[in-house]
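Dear colleague,

Following up on Tuesday's group meeting, I ran the structure prediction for the four-component complex that the binding team flagged. I've pasted the input sequences exactly as they went in, so you can double-check that nothing got truncated or mislabelled along the way. The structure tokens for the whole assembly follow below. Feel free to forward this to whoever is handling the docking comparison.

Inputs:
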Amino acid sequence: MIVSDMAMTPRAALLARYRAVRRRTEQLCAPLAVDDYQIQSVPEVSPPKWHLAHTTWFFETFLLRPLLPAYRPFHPRYEYLFNSYYETVGTFYPRAERGHLSRPTVEEVYRYRARVDECLGALVTEAPPDQYRELVFRITLGVNHEQQHQELLLMDVKRNFAASPLRPAYRTTPPAPAPARPAALTWLERPEGVFEVGHAGDGFAFDNETPRHRVLLRPHRLASRAVTNGEYLEFVEAGGYREPRHWLADGWQVCRKEKWEAPLYWEKSGDKWWQMTLAGLRPLADHEPVCHVSFYEADAFARWGGRRLPTEEELEVATAGRPVRGNFVESELLHPAPAGGDGQWFGDVWEWTASPYSPYPGFRPLPGSLGEYNGKFMVNQLVLRGGCCVTPESHMRPTYRNFFYPHDRWPFTGIRLAEDA
Amino acid sequence: MIVSDMAMTPRAALLARYRAVRRRTEQLCAPLAVDDYQIQSVPEVSPPKWHLAHTTWFFETFLLRPLLPAYRPFHPRYEYLFNSYYETVGTFYPRAERGHLSRPTVEEVYRYRARVDECLGALVTEAPPDQYRELVFRITLGVNHEQQHQELLLMDVKRNFAASPLRPAYRTTPPAPAPARPAALTWLERPEGVFEVGHAGDGFAFDNETPRHRVLLRPHRLASRAVTNGEYLEFVEAGGYREPRHWLADGWQVCRKEKWEAPLYWEKSGDKWWQMTLAGLRPLADHEPVCHVSFYEADAFARWGGRRLPTEEELEVATAGRPVRGNFVESELLHPAPAGGDGQWFGDVWEWTASPYSPYPGFRPLPGSLGEYNGKFMVNQLVLRGGCCVTPESHMRPTYRNFFYPHDRWPFTGIRLAEDA
Amino acid sequence: MIVSDMAMTPRAALLARYRAVRRRTEQLCAPLAVDDYQIQSVPEVSPPKWHLAHTTWFFETFLLRPLLPAYRPFHPRYEYLFNSYYETVGTFYPRAERGHLSRPTVEEVYRYRARVDECLGALVTEAPPDQYRELVFRITLGVNHEQQHQELLLMDVKRNFAASPLRPAYRTTPPAPAPARPAALTWLERPEGVFEVGHAGDGFAFDNETPRHRVLLRPHRLASRAVTNGEYLEFVEAGGYREPRHWLADGWQVCRKEKWEAPLYWEKSGDKWWQMTLAGLRPLADHEPVCHVSFYEADAFARWGGRRLPTEEELEVATAGRPVRGNFVESELLHPAPAGGDGQWFGDVWEWTASPYSPYPGFRPLPGSLGEYNGKFMVNQLVLRGGCCVTPESHMRPTYRNFFYPHDRWPFTGIRLAEDA
Amino acid sequence: MIVSDMAMTPRAALLARYRAVRRRTEQLCAPLAVDDYQIQSVPEVSPPKWHLAHTTWFFETFLLRPLLPAYRPFHPRYEYLFNSYYETVGTFYPRAERGHLSRPTVEEVYRYRARVDECLGALVTEAPPDQYRELVFRITLGVNHEQQHQELLLMDVKRNFAASPLRPAYRTTPPAPAPARPAALTWLERPEGVFEVGHAGDGFAFDNETPRHRVLLRPHRLASRAVTNGEYLEFVEAGGYREPRHWLADGWQVCRKEKWEAPLYWEKSGDKWWQMTLAGLRPLADHEPVCHVSFYEADAFARWGGRRLPTEEELEVATAGRPVRGNFVESELLHPAPAGGDGQWFGDVWEWTASPYSPYPGFRPLPGSLGEYNGKFMVNQLVLRGGCCVTPESHMRPTYRNFFYPHDRWPFTGIRLAEDA
């Protein structure tokens, strides 16, 4: 991560940013009943309560413990309970059992948050000048970390609610503003060339976006918007889920084992398709981007149509310099919306790329325990780009690299097509 | 089940009994936070919330739906969500996923209870005389069913809380009254003879306790009290958990696979043994009955000492005619207490028997869906007798047959020794 | 096990008996290719090669090592490789991986057998008179043990061959002699009474058949023959495998999980049923006894017809004193044959009983490692009676207790019905 | 795959090449007992018999059936039994159960081979000129396919034999010729530049090596030989297998779950290390290349030493134009040998790269079923380069891309280090 001119951020601005993000997390929980905070319907999601506590643990562990001399941990076992995966910090409670913890209660977790927020305020106010640069860096990292968990929290609530036969709604949302007419699909061509990708210069970025480096891209074309439900439905109805020849071998195996027949959250009632949303069950809308597909499905869909997925470098070069605008969490739709003609480069759905998540050439993880943040996951996953409708807008940038396993479907994942030129 | 003179129970008394048991369930939940209602730490336990709803479903399904013409189900999906295992009623939500349901909320479940209680009151008041005998029978069955779930609820809360690294207490309890001195172990001898066992005559009993029938017992002796922690600790410290020759082959396999080294809830800290209780961690007390052992451990312990477990008929004959008194849930200890010299025949710990849970000769299950209550479980399990410290006293009788799988350890299970005479 | 008048058996006769049984095992392997000796298609079967070696290990371990001073083990690792489950002898190679051992080769295993046979001959000839009683006992036990493995070998070969898409035949067999007309089903009634069951007196028996003891039987009736394929087919075609109400809960769970739709080895082609036999695929014959059903299926079939399974004591009392004649392995049919009117009490199919496999009252296992032979399996299994078409006739007797898990279907298991009188 | 000037290969030469490779497979089986042909000790290996049959099936399916009009399949079920993974050819026998097939016997499989060889000879002789180019292509592909299975066969035999407590030898082998003194480790530096990689022009290559394309490489250095056992032992003894910080997160999880403590086939006896080889157990030799490590171990070792693994492009550029010489199967060592100073670019051990196995830009799989050969595996695996001591020399070339999952250890896999310049 790089935070330039760190020593220049005023203390009041730093604290305001911290408090705004912390408050935002709690606002996102407002529609939840105490009961909802506890659920872990599948091992890959975490209970909302755990997200609230873990993000707090992050500030306690990486800010308060090392930098605030007078700090006394809120509870001796929280270090163990709310460590996610930092081996160099210590052992941690098994991930798959997070839903088995009724204590601390939701109320206690909020008290934990309040106490850490209070101490963080003291730390920002009192930190000596020679520590200030490090303080800015770590708070900025922690704030970005908490934004990631805001997105995870919404993803996980959706997964939990979709697992319930009652199909409850997280909250009502306004319908997406329908464009006058569907955005036509066009192709953006780029000739061969050497380009620079990766983060450099001012502003925050995660370590996995560095170093900036040169890449050679082949001539190619990128679609001008994401694949829609209507387009994907053709693949479903053409028997795409029953034809191994479209699929990677590992993908086909998962498809059979998990009995996939459509994207996650699609369900058919009679001859009509519905989809589960954060506002409950809604009819499938043709012009919305298809969402909640795995890499395997995205790849099979592209192959079926004679196309391919873009590489992460192709997407980065295409979006470099563009303003980061789109359907993010601030739109409050909490659902992908039909393309409006602006290229749909940001927001709506995370776009699967053909790029395995690997270190950039010359990559160095952060020193110390924070080096575990990103680097140790650089195998077996694929890169996704652009953010989605539950990502905070201020969290996104063209160099941002998200990553998931090829079978993951519960993030808000979609498809942009590419082809060789 | 047999409820004699059913038509004689006054309506007011019937309703009072119903209400007392229903209220008791809710009282048992009073120490729980909303968070605690939701937890299912292992597949064999159910969340407290589910127990509250399922017992209500029982009255709704077997009383209100068939007998109260005006009754409208509280919610269309509850039939599916809160059916435990009645195949002839319909499909049911998977048992292992009961902890994944945050909705209905605890508050809604209490509303469900209140509504069913209200309608049940109306049903008792208004039922025509020719239905009244059936009404008494079904309410009595439902009340006994709810008492079983009161015990399960406490067993399950203990299991959930023991799984937490915080080892929370359900509530504080008074220490067990220590007897002046430990009850000596003596042996009660009985010569060979033909005896009658099983239920007949007045009073309620489950169908699995019938029909009353004659059995031939061999000469034998029964211990005058349950095995204590101190006695069991000798087995542990003699390497009992590392010596396959004491164990049944299936038991040894479980012991190795699960890495058993002591009863469930025992833990060693330094060289001192502790045990998890409903009041939190407490030092292991030598004179308390050993509790939370599987059939395999009970059998291995008996074999190690050159003894055996009693049969269910030996225990029934020994307890027939004795008053049902002991350390039941009403003592509020919620933990087995040292023997006081009365034979410890009831309460404290369920006693594993050597008897597989099989139908009595001539057994006929109840007609209809209620025939699934007991009969379909008559394989692969062992009979336990006598009730325990979390059983309601009014729920117990000498003919009562409880049953669990030989590897189960989360019920309050203990050991009484026997030997051939 | 009891072998009376052991010291009286002449040495030559003892050796002849030993040699006959050993030779018989090898004859049973004659139809096998070297390839066939190696297969373990499911964990519960053992490769034929393993049976050949293990039975030899039994004589080496329990006769040659302790009693023949000059004996040097054939190979230092065979004690580990061919120990089945004797914990007190030492550790053993994992059962589920027996099919992973290509060495020793079949040829080496036959050399192992020859060497042990030779030394056993020397032992019988040279044993001092004061050891002779023990010698007779152990050889008799070993011979009976080898007969059990002869049956297992044929069961396992059938299981292996049935798993092959080629459905190979072990060998051709003559068709069963069809009776002039099917034996009618009649009922043998017995009034209540106290009877003696279990082994006593002259002749060999396993320890689990002792001690002889008195039991009280209720009035009941037993069917005069085993259930036929034709009768069982009615259950299948009436939807018996889709109706949970006929099944024990544990059985229904297995039935669903394993997708059972008929007995093991039945397969439907078009609208015709076939069954796999040791002679390959043959059309299902209506009048043959149904075979290869689990206890769960046997119990469900009986319940569907309003009947029950007999207890092991009812069967023992019914067969006591009857000559042990029937369709055993010596008939060379290797398949159950239609009832001929003699009650079908022995041979054809092992009859599931309603009796859990438990110790008889007063049971004491053999001393030392041989005590592991039977006693440690006395939980979770059910008793079967009467022997089957691949059992050696000389191995059977009315007190014989076989035992399998309720889900096991690969033994030659069938059904005799009973009912209360 | 590209076979240039295909129509120019004389028929006799084509057939001679075919026959030589087919004969070679059978020679590799010469040390096996019939018993050994059958074993599948873990799901990822195949029985030798299956390799013999499957390679034959390949010629039958892709040559004889489509191109020899008079051809009648050898057996109707072999298409199903010996299809590995070609979904578009039809369904196939489950991979994990290949060790459960005793039929066809080894003898029958050799007859199958002979028959197909005979018909292939006829096909080569009689094919009309307009089919000849396609014939050369398919036979060349089939011959390369069979060479891959020669290597798999030796890998799998080693895995099977290592699983046996007897640790049998496949055959005795000469010790590796020890170099006068160990080859020093030096670093070959290369500055940044654009290079071409991938296959083009004359000679055979698989489709996954195409198309040839330009890549931009960063300045880097490559080690002059593979990592040795002695070097790797330092990592082991420094606690490398107990320190999560060296490992990728997925790798650490596998390491813990599988209880890895050293490379596959290493075992410690007292304080001495041994390794299982195709010649049986041998002391671990310090100067031999470390072998049978997973990608996770290779990556952790590199990270521990402050280095990294090379990319596949770095290795290809380094080896381009070098003669393909090294310790291949023809040396008959069947084991990696100490580096001799020639860079060890080929043979000895497959070198893990940091490159996920992805399609080259513009990649097009072969048309039809043969398109399943390589393309559908392009996810979740890593590329390996250079061949090993059980690879046929004529099978290797600088553009060759092998691929395995990151946890795979049973191939002859080793490590070459790299670093940024």
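Chain A has a mean pLDDT of 95.

Cheers,
M.
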